[in-house]
Each structure stands twice: as structure tokens, then as C-alpha cells.
Amino acid sequence: MFQGETAITIDDKGRLAIPTAYRDLVARVGANRLVVTYNPYELGCLWLYPPAEWETVRDEVNKLPKAIKVHRNLQLKLVGAATFVDVDGSGRLLLPGSHRNATGIEKKAVLLGMGSKFELWSEQAHLAQIRQTIGEDEISEAMLGLTL
């Protein structure tokens, strides 16, 4: 569904323009709406889901037993922080200020198409991720079978 890396500029009002290559797809699969929430695993990143995809994730996360602290933390970061944003007629969406501030996303950002969702990274956090390599000791069993 979504794939690719695009440098994005956030305007002074906190809006970003959806790349033209994705606009029709966002309109079709999301009725010009996306859900913005935090990436609970890495700093400096927001996740943007089409509503139908989001509902599946939300329901799965909410089924986790709330008696376990890490589950409540995941629910807080994903479900509690989730916000619907509309894409306007110019293909822009307004990112909530609280989300931008918490992740350090300012003027320059990077939008990554990650299949079922987008990831929006602060420029600095994205560069830090890209500059990291995967060491041999980090390769999982599942990765060994990949033909890259």
C-alpha cells in the first residue's frame, strides 16, 4: 500500500502536505482521513494509519490485559494519543501540536510509507536510525530466511 521515503516540510501552522503520489490512495482507503498516534518503540516518530487499518490495531491493543503495566503503557501511547486528522483540499493535514512537541518533529521531517501505515520521523531521529547498522548479533531467526 504505502512505500517510499519523502522529505517533508512542516509549515508554521503544523501542516504537512501528503505527497501527490499518495493523495489518491489516502482518499480512497481513508476517505481523506488518517489517524495520528505515537510510535511506542522509537523516539522521534509518529504513526499515521488509514481509519480501517487503525481500528484493527486499536482493537488488538485494547484487548491486552490492563493489569499489566507495559500493556497500559502501550494503550496510552497508541490508543490514548490517537487523533483523527483530515486531509484538506490542498492535500495537507494538521499535526496536533502535542504530538509534534513530544516527538521533536519541527520544520523538516521524513515521511516513510511502511505498507499499512506511514511513519513520520523528525529529521534528526530519522538520520540517527538510518546511520545505525544491524550487527550480526542482532539478526533474528526470522531475518535469517530473508533473501535480501
Description:
This protein is of the alpha+beta class and about 150 residues long. It has a single domain, classed as Chemotaxis protein chec (3-Layer(aba) Sandwich). Helices cover about 35% and strands about 30% of the residues. It has a six-stranded antiparallel sheet with strand order 1-7-8-4-3-5. A hairpin with a 2-residue loop joins strand 7 and strand 8. The longest helix has 12 residues. It is globular. InterPro entries: MraZ (IPR003444), MraZ_C (IPR035644), MraZ_dom (IPR020603), MraZ_N (IPR035642), MraZ_sf (IPR038619), SpoVT-AbrB_dom (IPR007159), SpoVT-AbrB_sf (IPR037914). GO terms for molecular function: DNA-binding transcription factor activity; transcription cis-regulatory region binding. It comes from Chiayiivirga flava.
What is the arithmetic mean of pLDDT? Answer: 96
CATH uppermost class: Alpha Beta
Low-confidence stretches: none
Q: What proportion strand?
A: 25-35%
Could you give the order of the helices and strands? Answer: EEHEEHHEEHEEHH
The CATH superfamily appears as Transcriptional regulator MraZ domain
Helix content: 25-40%
Biggest sheet descriptor: 6 strands, antiparallel
CATH architecture: 3-Layer(aba) Sandwich
